[in-house]
């Protein structure tokens, strides 16, 4: 009996290592595919501005065709968590659909991140391993653990995963150990096949000024407002997209839209993961109008693309868009521009993710570590605001009005007031129309 438990333990350790290695291999594969398809367009002038049209449109139709046949894949992180929460497990038999469609959308230049498909694949492998361990525990020594075929009817009578452990502490200890082994596996792959990294500890001299305490008010409000806009763009896109148009045409049409948007800048395409840090240095050389256009268009492309079948994660596009709008606002206000920008970015990203701690970790690995006190304070403050004051149409309208007045008091350029005024008026008009329609 002890020997059998030892065999199961070795089996779990080996497969945890393999799962970590496969997860890292998938992320490297995504980068390799993007580099294979787009390196000529991104690194040289060969292919010119029309190259995205040659790639995005045909691959868009292929994505639409596969969506029509297989359904909406890859699943989102929220869908994975919902399945696990409601059913206690994830249906891992359709992992290959998320793999193929996720890789296609990313390789075609979609403004999405790899976190959705990566979550599906990793969760599928983990659930499969959990089922193998449950099955092994129920079958005892009646088969070969490494080669035995797992049947559905055998799983029906198998113990629950939590029942494999004597107590909660043992379960937490074992799972933590297996996760650690998986991380080691991923690290091995990243060391053997290194890719350009985006995360790290960055340093920068910050010119702290008292005026930043005053500018933190409008920047905080703008960050929350942009975060609200990004979140609701997904719902608006789903309402706008005509369901009567087949998914095949939706995929192809968005490929055309994405290719057209690339004429503004190539940063509209892709997740923006590897461009976030360089863009923070380049952004101050761009005009305010350009930065606002990039922020808005990228947010729209991520959410409209998702609604039209180009599915994936939105964390990195959200970070990139927040950096663009944060830099634009910072350039209009007095005080240190990096402090102003990080308030907008932290507020926006916290509102989008609704997880202050996750936002803090992400930003500390992307921006100068000297800004840590501002990041921590803003993230927890916005997290508290979200809980106390759930967003509504009228509240967002009021936010625009308040921000416009504060900007005026700070003597910001007049056209920002004009933009906020137009935005607030349009928002009020759409809100009134919605009330009339309902």
TrEMBL record:
Residue spans crossing the bilayer: 12-30, 50-67, 172-190, 210-231, 252-271, 283-301, 313-333, 361-386
Pfam families: Voltage_CLC
Organism: Limosilactobacillus reuteri (Lactobacillus reuteri)
Database matches in InterPro entries: Cl-channel_core, ClC, ClC-type_chloride_channel
This protein's record includes keyword Transmembrane: yes
GO cellular component: membrane
Major site of localization recorded for this protein: membrane
Record GO terms (molecular function): chloride transmembrane transporter activity
Taxonomic superkingdom: Bacteria
Membrane topology: Multi-pass membrane protein
Keyword annotations from UniProtKB, A to Z: Membrane, Transmembrane, Transmembrane helix
Compartment(s) of residence: Membrane
Record's keyword annotation contains Membrane: yes
Protein name: Chloride channel protein
Lineage start: Bacteria, Bacillati, Bacillota, Bacilli, Lactobacillales
């Amino acid at each position: 009996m002890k020997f059998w438990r030892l065999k199961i333990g070795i089996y779990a350790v080996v497969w945890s290592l393999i799962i970590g290695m496969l997860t890292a291999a998938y992320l490297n594969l995504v980068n390799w595919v993007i580099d294979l398809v787009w390196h000529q367009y991104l690194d040289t002038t060969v292919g010119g501005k029309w190259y995205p049209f040659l790639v995005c449109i045909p691959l868009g139709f292929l994505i639409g065709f596969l969506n029509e046949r297989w359904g909406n894949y890859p699943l989102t992180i929220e869908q994975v968590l919902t399945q696990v929460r409601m059913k206690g497990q994830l249906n891992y038999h359709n992992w290959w659909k998320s793999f193929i469609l996720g890789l296609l959308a990313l390789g075609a230049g979609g403004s999405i991140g790899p976190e959705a498909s990566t979550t599906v694949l990793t969760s599928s492998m983990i659930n499969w391993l959990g089922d193998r361990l449950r099955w092994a525990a129920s079958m005892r020594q009646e088969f070969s653990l490494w080669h035995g075929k797992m049947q559905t009817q055998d799983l029906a009578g198998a113990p629950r995963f939590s029942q494999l452990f004597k107590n909660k502490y043992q379960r937490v200890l074992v799972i933590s150990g297996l996760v650690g082994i998986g991380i080691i596996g991923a690290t091995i792959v990243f060391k053997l096949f290194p890719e350009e990294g985006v995360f790290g500890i960055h340093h920068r001299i910050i010119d702290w000024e008292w005026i930043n305490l005053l500018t933190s008010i409008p920047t905080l409000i703008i960050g929350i407002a942009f975060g609200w806009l990004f979140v609701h763009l997904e719902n608006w896109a789903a309402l706008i997209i005509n369901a009567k148009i087949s998914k095949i045409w939706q995929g192809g049409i968005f490929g055309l839209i994405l290719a057209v948007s690339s004429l503004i800048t190539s940063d509209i395409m892709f997740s923006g993961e590897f461009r976030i840090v360089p863009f923070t240095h380049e952004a101050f050389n761009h005009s305010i109008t350009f930065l606002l256009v990039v922020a808005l268009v990228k947010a729209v492309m991520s959410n409209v693309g998702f609604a039209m079948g180009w599915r994936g994660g939105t964390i990195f596009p959200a970070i990139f868009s927040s950096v663009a709008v944060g830099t634009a606002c910072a350039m209009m206000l007095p005080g240190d521009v990096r402090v102003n920008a990080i308030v907008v970015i932290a507020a926006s990203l916290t509102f989008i993710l609704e997880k202050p701690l996750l936002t803090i970790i992400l930003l500390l690995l992307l921006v100068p570590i000297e800004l840590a006190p501002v990041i921590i304070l803003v993230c927890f403050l916005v997290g508290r605001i979200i809980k106390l004051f759930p967003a509504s149409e009228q509240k967002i309208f009021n936010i625009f009005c308040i921000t416009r007045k504060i900007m005026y008091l700070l003597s910001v350029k007049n056209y920002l007031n004009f933009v906020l005024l137009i935005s607030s008026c349009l928002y009020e008009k759409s809100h009134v129309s919605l009330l009339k329609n309902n």
